Write a sequence for this structure.
């Protein structure tokens, strides 16, 4: 595991974009696992700029996102499909058909979970998976639990996660309480993992990377992965 500390968010974003961009340059048809939230926005801005200036080509890249809320339409401003279209997909030359997220509107979420797991396998697996980390140690929407979920699944969001997400909604009653997420086993199959974290995550990051490996701190499982890079900013 490589741990890099940066002075600020901008430097973290530059380094993260550099690693993601290098993956695209080395393997133009790579599969990128992507994340949402405030942490990756700066990196996505850098990737979009690099593509706009002709230094990166996303035309063969395939993407799979970690998760999606249940019950939100794709054009809902709070959906993760909307987030990805806004911050990355509409700004680079990636075919829309190459971008994949779980369908949180599926009538049969169990069948949708299996479909998404099979889709990732059919693409040949994830070459580089981008992750953030929650204040309770969640990665994707894998919350503290008795065990590590192995596959894509539906999760009931914890009250702390709902509260954290409520800043993006007009009313806390509007915050989705369920999501479809890659399982811990799905995430761990990625060939490379890139975890980025802001200064406010310093405490949980130390617990996850230096403490015992336990499903009560889902990110702690990353200690077992052979190729993890962590970029953490101090301020």
């Amino acid at each position: 595991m490589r741990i890099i500390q940066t002075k600020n968010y901008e430097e973290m974003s530059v380094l993260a974009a550099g690693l993601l961009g290098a993956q695209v340059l080395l393997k133009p048809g790579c599969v990128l696992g992507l994340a949402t939230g405030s942490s990756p926005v700066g990196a996505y801005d850098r990737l979009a700029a690099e593509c706009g200036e002709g230094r990166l080509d996303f035309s063969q890249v395939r993407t799979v996102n970690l998760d999606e809320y249940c019950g939100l339409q794709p054009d809902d401003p709070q959906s993760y499909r909307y987030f990805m279209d806004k911050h990355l997909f509409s700004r680079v030359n990636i075919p829309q058909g190459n971008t994949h997220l779980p369908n949180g509107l599926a009538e049969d979420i169990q069948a949708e979970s299996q479909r998404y797991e099979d889709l990732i396998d059919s693409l040949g697996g994830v070459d580089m998976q981008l992750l953030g980390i929650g204040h309770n140690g969640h990665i994707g929407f894998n919350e503290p639990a008795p065990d590590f979920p192995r596959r894509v699944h539906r999760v009931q969001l914890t009250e702390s996660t709902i509260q954290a997400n409520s800043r993006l909604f007009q009313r806390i009653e509007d915050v989705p309480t369920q999501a479809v997420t890659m399982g811990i086993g799905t995430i761990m199959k990625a060939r490379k993992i890139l975890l980025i974290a802001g200064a406010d995550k310093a405490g949980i990051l130390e617990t996850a990377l230096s403490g015992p490996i336990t499903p009560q701190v889902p990110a702690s499982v990353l200690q077992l992965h052979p190729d993890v890079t962590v970029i953490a900013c101090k301020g």
Q: What stands out?
A: Residues 32 and 63 are 5 Å apart (CA to CA). The mean pLDDT is 95. The first strand starts at residue 2 and ends at 6. The helical segments are 9-26, 41-52, 80-87, 109-122, 159-165, 184-188, 202-210.
